[in-house]
Specification:
The protein is α/β, with parallel strands linked by helices and 243 residues long. The chain has seven helices and eight strands; from the N terminus they run E-H-E-E-H-E-H-H-E-H-E-H-E-H-E. The longest helix is centred in the last third of the chain and has 17 residues, at 164-180. Residues 23-24, 41-42, 65 line the site of magnesium ion. This is Ras-related protein Rab.
């Protein structure tokens, strides 16, 4: 299914959240940098991928865009396994979608083997272009992220293209850091005990698989925040192996 020629690593990510929060629009914005006003509610799961450059690495981001409607939840569940990242998406203008995030997070955690805790969770508050109807504040999003070991919180607009590329790219960066620190294994290698959602492409340099040094400890409670171009607070900057 994937072209294995043109990237070093492939990261599988799954997008979940209530129906209508804008998951498919975010995916289209990420892939093609456009907004499709005629988007229809997703049936089952759709797949989109795009290669991004992270320093010297070409990384293929493979997104599983799941359907938020209740009747499709059982299909989505089978995609948690084998994902390096779970993107939890809500609509900042509908508080019920924010309240559902706990359930989506629980769902994600219960559908992974208990010893496989290296998946990265990110939280996305979408539709910030609708300023007058906002029901969930930025602070509420940050609080939830901090209290639930979410690695990254971003507020986005798929309509205006605000922080969509940044959110996915930063998420890929977080995964790459964990791979380089050997906290996440690469499929097919002995350190991948968990079907990590990370695969090597043909460009994968040997240094990736045989990186020096012991695994670094996790950094719970550190959240990368993406909100304002001039205010990107990165609390986790201590642990980047590429800096
Ligand atoms: N104003 C605004 N509307 C948006 C944004 N993103 C999506 N929408 C609208 O929200 C509606 C739902 O978008 P989808 O992308 O289909 O939502 P979804 O989460 O994929 O929904 P399901 O596939 O049913 O799970 C559409 O009418 C979009 O036009 C955004 O950033 N701002
Ligand atoms: Mg959809």
């Amino acid at each position: 299914m994937y072209d294995t020629n043109d990237y070093h690593l492939l990261f599988k990510m799954i997008m979940v959240g209530d129906s209508g929060v804008g998951k498919s629009c975010l995916v289209t914005r990420f892939k093609e940098d456009r907004f499709d006003p005629r988007v229809e509610s997703t049936i089952g799961v759709e797949f989109v991928s795009k290669t991004v450059d992270l320093d010297q690495y070409k990384v293929r981001v493979a997104l599983w865009d799941t359907a938020g409607q209740e009747k499709f939840h059982s299909i989505a569940r089978s995609y948690y396994r084998g994902s390096a990242c779970v993107a939890l998406v809500y609509d900042v203008t509908r508080i019920s979608t924010f309240e559902s995030i706990s359930r989506w997070l629980r769902d994600a955690k219960t559908n992974r083997p208990s010893h496989c805790n290296n998946v990265i969770y990110i939280l996305i508050g979408n539709k910030i272009d609708i300023k007058q109807n906002r029901q969930v504040s930025y602070e509420q999003g940050v609080r939830f992220a901090t209290e639930n070991d979410i690695a990254l919180y971003a507020e986005t607009s798929a309509v205006e293209g605000v922080f969509v590329q940044e959110a996915f790219k930063e998420c890929a960066n977080l995964i790459l850091d964990k791979v380089l620190q050997k906290q996440i294994g690469i499929a097919g290698f002995e350190d991948d005990m968990c079907n990590s959602g990370v695969k090597a492409g043909k460009l994968a340099a040997k240094m990736l698989m045989h990186a020096e040094g012991p695994p670094s400890p996790n950094s719970p409670g550190k959240v990368t925040l993406i909100k304002d171009k001039n205010l990107k607070v990165e609390k986790d900057s201590c642990c980047s192996s590429r800096s």
